[in-house]
Amino acid sequence: xxxxxxxxxxxxxxxxxxxxxxxxxxxxxxxxxxxxxxxxxxxxxxxxxxxxxxxxxxxxxxxxxxxxxxxxxxxxxxxxxxxxxxxxxxxxxxxxxxxxxxxxxxxxxxxxxxxxxxxxxxxxxxxxxxxxxxxxxxxxxxxxxxxxxxxxxxxxxxxxxxxxxxxxxxxxxxxxxxxxxxxxxxxxxxxxxxxxxxxxxxxxxxxxxxxxxxxxxxxxxxxxxxxxxxxxxxxxxxxxxxxxxxxxxxxxxxxxxxxxxx
Length: 262
Prior knowledge:
alpha/beta; three-stranded antiparallel sheet; 9 helices; 15 strands
C-alpha cells in the first residue's frame, strides 16, 4: 500500500479549508462538528484547520466553530443588518414578556430593538424613551404611549442620537426597564460597539435603568468591537436565540448573567 506524499496531503488540507471558507461565506457561521461530519474527519482536524485560517486572518474562532472576521471598527448600517432576522424576531417577542404594565422603558438603537418596536403593544400607558428617531416615529401610532427622544446628533450608520444633549438627557431620567443592543459580547472584553460616541451613550443607559435587558442574537457572543460600553455584570438578562451553544450558555451564566434562549 503506497503512502501519500506530502503534496497530496497538503492539497487535501487546502481543499478542506476552501470548503470551510465557502460554508462560512454562505451561512455566516461555521459549526465545527457539522464540518467534521461532512468531510469525514475528526473534530481535532477541523480545529487545527480553523486555527490556521484564523492565523491567516480569514475567520475568527468562537466556541464550537468560527465566524467571519471583520475590522473592530467596521459597522454596517442598521438597515443592512439582515442576517438572523428570524432569530431577532423571536428575541423581540420574548422581550415583550418583560415590559412593565405601567411606568417607563428605554429602547436602544439596533436591529433587534427595532424588531421589538415593530411589535410593541399599545394597550398600556408607558413612557418610552429612545435615542433613535425612526423608532420614536414608529411608536407614535400607539396613542397610549408617551414617546420621548433624547436629542443630540444623529449618527448616519445607526440613526442613534449621540453627544452632549443625549448624555444630559440620560443623566436626568430614570426608567423601569432598558432594552439594549450591542455589537459584541465577550467574556474578556465585555460589551463592545464600533463607535466611541455611541458607546458613551450606551454606557450611560446602564446607569439610568432599574432593570437592564440585552437583546442580541447568538452571533454577537464571542465578538469584540471597537469600544467597550459595559461589563457582562451590568446586564440583568440576556435574551438570545437557540443558536447559543450549551457551552456558551454555561460560561455566560458563570458571570452571574441570566440568559434566556428563545
